[in-house]
């Protein structure tokens, strides 16, 4: 049985003080047994050491928002998988829609980052999703499957046994809009079927989480869908009360 994952993506938000307060509130509010889900927070790079310290021996795990496809070298401003691992990071977000749109990360480039993460034993959270234009033109399923196929073609289906897929409808991120539970379930089903065409075993075990503006109001119904295995939470993860409520929405 797949265990749900709820991951908070803080993006480029917070300060040392506010991050400390938020982390401590999450540790306090998400003690052992308080949620059936695996819980994870992904703070900005400068706060990884802080998060490692505060989250030590707690029920909340630590992830990163990005990494370099390179292992080391003259790559100013980049952070390697090995560096992340030294700070207790166990997951890393790969190919978030903001990285694809704002920094022109291609499907092939995202696949290289996926491979770099797995070399160091990090679990990639692979983000796939379509824009409103792509959805309205009837190409949504093609787009998300092509994004996933880039990983499968380069790394093989067995690599997904140690990964998470996050479906993030781009039109629902930061807009206050959320795909209906049936819309989200339909796309999650499409993604699982795409993996099943290569391996039914991997598809059955693969966690596919929803990343389209999950909040405390919508989480329970979304997480109740058969192919939705938790959420990648943006803005709501910056508010301890909201994120705790989302985590406890997993049944």
Mind telling me the C-alpha Rg? 17 Å
Low-confidence stretches: none
Tell how many strands the DSSP assignment holds: 8
- Alpha-beta content class: alpha/beta
Strand order of the largest sheet: 7-6-5-4-3-2-1-8
End-to-end gap = 13 Å
Helical fraction: 40-55%
Give the SSE order as H and E letters. Answer: EHEHEHEHHEHHEHHEHEH
Strand fraction: 5-15%
Instruction: Write down the overall mean pLDDT.
Output: 95
- Number of helix segments? 11
Gross morphology: globular
Structure, explained:
With 251 residues, the chain is α/β, with parallel strands linked by helices. 41% of the residues lie in helices and 15% in strands. The protein has helices at residues 16-29, 48-55, 81-86, 97-102, 107-119, 132-136, 140-155, 181-196, 200-205, 219-223, 240-247; strands at 5-9, 38-42, 60-64, 91-94, 123-128, 164-167, 207-210, 230-233. It has an eight-stranded parallel beta sheet. β1, α1 and β2 (38-42) form a beta-alpha-beta unit. The longest helix has 16 residues, at 140-155.
Key traits:
251 residues; alpha/beta; 8-stranded parallel β-sheet; 11 helices; 41% helix; 15% strand; globular
Secondary structure elements and pairings:
Layout: E1 5-9, H1 16-29, E2 38-42, H2 48-55, E3 60-64, H3 81-86, E4 91-94, H4 97-102, H5 107-119, E5 123-128, H6 132-136, H7 140-155, E6 164-167, H8 181-196, H9 200-205, E7 207-210, H10 219-223, E8 230-233, H11 240-247
Parallel strand pairs: 1-2, 1-8, 2-3, 3-4, 4-5, 5-6, 6-7
